[in-house]
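Risk register update: the risk of archive-format incompatibility is retired. Evidence:
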Amino acid sequence: MFNRINKHLAFKITREDNNRINFLDLTIIRNKNNIEVNIYRKETSTDTVIHYFSNHPIEQKMAAFRYYINRLLTLPLTQDGTNTEWTTILNMAKNNGFPIERITRLKTQMVKNLQHKKPENNTKRWTTFTYYGPAVRKITNLFKYSAIGIAFRTTNTIFKQLTKGKNEQTTPSGIYKIKCNTCNTVYMGQTGRGINTRYKEHIRYIKSNNPQSAYAIHILRNRHEYGPENETLQLIRPCAKGTRMNSWEAMMIQYHHHRESLITEQQPYDHNPLYICIQESRSQTDYRSTIATRPATDTSTRHADIT
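Archived output:
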């Protein structure tokens, strides 16, 4: 009867083969006196998981191994089955760039947790942060000892990769800066349109003596020079219009105001100490990258700029 529902669907019975039958991710073995179970993987299965050096939070990268190890510890596997599965897990970790010591420590910790299981805390509230890199932990660590749990979402998903390039503008939108060619100070701005379109508007305000933007006011009031687009306009952060763009703009304005490189006609937003944490973290990361890639004979000191 089931096979009459749709011609493309066929329900078949799986029968024992040599006292074995595969069900979901288990191989069930029928012996004379007992039943044994082992882990079953299809012949087409791969050992691919999120790579250790991928730009994902470590919680997501370790999730697969938590599942595999939890299954290893909780199923009544034979000793040979346990050893075989643990070897498979270690090979999977090695092939995806994971340090073997980290996987071994995870297993040890999970064994302890099973032996001393704590009651779950169902009163914890959860919030989500977008994971752009390790710098975000400067913020999330502030909630470490609070009743708020932190979960991460990523931007480099399969969906984003498959839809990349569709319906994109010819020029990107986001946070941009325009330099004054006379005093080398900068104007920070945001736009949901292409930055080239917004740049042309600034230039039109200058040519028509129209004080509609802080950059135009700076050029007109001080009789300074503006340069060509390819020399003065720079995209700082591509992003879509919204609260995230507002936050990036406020942080970059505060950053350049702190460095005294912001045009005086542009007023900074209220000081936010979280921006300082992010800027310091990014500066340290960029500086370490500079040191790592510097030739051995170069002993000069350079300071990294987050822009």
